Amino acid sequence: MTENQNIDAVAAAAAAASRPFARTSPRDRGAALVAVADALDATAPELIDIAMRETGLAQARLTGELRRTSWQLRLFADTIVDGAYLDARIDDADPEYVIGPRPDLRRMLEPVGPVLNFAASNFPFAFSVAGGDSAAALAAGCPVVVKAHSGHPELSRRTAEVVAGALREAGMPEGVFQLISGQQNGVDLLKDERIRAGAFTGSTHVGRMLADIAASREVPIPFYGELGSVNPVYATYADDALLDGFVASVSGSAGQLCTKPGFLFVPDGVDLNAVSGAAASVDEHRLLNPGIGRAFSQRRDDVLGADGVTVLSQGEVRVDDAGQTYATPTVVTVDVDTLTQNREALLEESFGPLSVIVRYADRAALPALHTELFPGNLTSTLHARAEELADESLAPLVEALAETSGRVLFGGWPTGVSVTPAMQHGGPYPATTSDATSVGTAAITRFLRGVSYQGAPQALLPAPLQDANPWDVPQTRSAAGRSTTWGSFAR
Predict the structure, then answer these.
(1) Do the Cβ atoms of 109 and 26 come closer than 8 Å?
(2) Nearest residue to 229 via CA among 35, 442, 469, 404
(3) Which one from 54, 65, 258, 349 is the annotated catalytic residue?
(4) Of all helices (H) and strands (E), which one includes residue 89?
(5) Where are the alpha helices (DSSP H) in 281-431?
(6) pLDDT tens readout for residues 1-58
(7) Alpha helices in 192-230 (DSSP H)
């Protein structure tokens, strides 16, 4: 993997693999995903050792993350073998159709083609080379080119070797999985007409730049970017247990998580002394790379220097001889007026172990305040006592959270995203460029497009739409004659 790679050759290989890979059966493709998962597990000690050295993340964290990555591949394998994700629909020809004769129509979701995935820095396994976007695109039947993150180049190379080798041994086409490096290579490939979709996890600035490139191509393509989120949390009370959980969520992985709670709203007058003690017990943690360390230090200075801020935990920042930054949690508190008056200094995401506790006096004002300050987030959270959740007084706030967030939590903390069919990991802009999900089985549909076949002979239909149904996938059939019963279920 070098920065003088032949990008034209990479795009050509991905394009050549596109049709053969799309035609692989769900069972064969699922077996290939399982083979990748097995290969990652078998190489885990080596990969984790490299990741610890390059990212500074702890062994326990990386072990869990790699396990999540391999089991996500297995979940996606079962999803595609089931076949429901194809949404195969068959309308039988009906000369008596009530609004005019209906031809034989058959629709399904098909792979969009080669996908370019820009890997993330903060999840060297789960959102990187073999992570969610790559897994979803492969499951959909799309060749994948990964643009490696500069924060873990050796790990990217080795992981790509493992993935590509497993796919090759499973009989998948050559060119179905490739790795490139270098910012300019990534930009050049995103502009290449043979790339049909893009995915990204990273900063708002870079993500928006790439999204604009994807949209401004002669033939625009979908671009699924996860850009940033401050994940506000609203509490109707604040006891020591809640505050301890808050600090743990803020400081986990040194706050370098896209779901870290950047703001906690608590009622006026609550005792916040527990925050200082909880934060003081957290050991320093290395940030992912020098660039992130410098950005965090500057962001921390901006927050600490804002008017009206009261420091609950000063935290510390240390830079070693290699330029790596180590930090402990910084937590400050402000009132609602200070937050709104100093929004430019306070509202921006702090990527690292820093969060703001906001004291409020009027619970009824929270829905409008939330909508004004936080128009798009991955998550929003509500902590309330059982008796408060049992009535409807909090309904306006919950509605505001749902309108502006991809995931609404009741209790708990947003860090820790379960890989499961019902997960939504996406949200309104600026959390993501397109309000889809990059986690869970619904992530596969981002890399599919609907195609209808009208009056097609059986021999020329895709397997999922044939009457014989050789892939044995679920088919939704609309038989002739049913249109005369329309509306009967609504009476």
Answers:
(1) no
(2) 404
(3) 258
(4) strand 88-91
(5) 290-304, 336-341, 343-346, 366-373, 386-389, 395-404
(6) 445 689 999 999 999 999 999 999 999 999 999 999 999 999 999 999 999 999 999 9
(7) 204-216
Give the sign of the dihedral formed by CA 163, CA 168, CA 169, CA 172.
positive
- Tokens linked to 463: 């397997």
Which among 386, 303, 390, 295 is positioned nearest to 346, based on CA atoms? Answer: 303
Q: List the structure tokens of 174.
A: 């050559």
Q: Give tens-digit pLDDT for 314-339.
A: 999 999 999 999 999 999 999 999 99
The identity of residue 258, as a single letter, is C
Structural domains in the chain, sorted by start:
7-227+437-448 (3.40.605.10), 233-410 (3.40.309.10)
| Residue 259 near residue 229, CB atoms below 8 Å | yes
Concerning whether 142 is annotated as a catalytic residue, the answer is no
In tens, the pLDDT along 87-128 reads: 999 999 999 999 999 999 999 999 999 999 999 999 999 999
The yes-or-no answer on residue 258 being catalytic is yes
> At which residue do the structure tokens 């019963």 appear?
485
Report yes or no: 287 and 56 within 8 Å, Cβ to Cβ. Answer: yes
What is the Cα–Cα distance from 407 to 376, expressed in whole angstroms?
11
Question: Which of 54, 65, 226, 349 is an active site residue?
Answer: 226
Count other Cβ atoms within 10 Å, centred on residue 179: 22
Distance from C-alpha of 180 to C-alpha of 185, rounded to nearest angstrom: 7
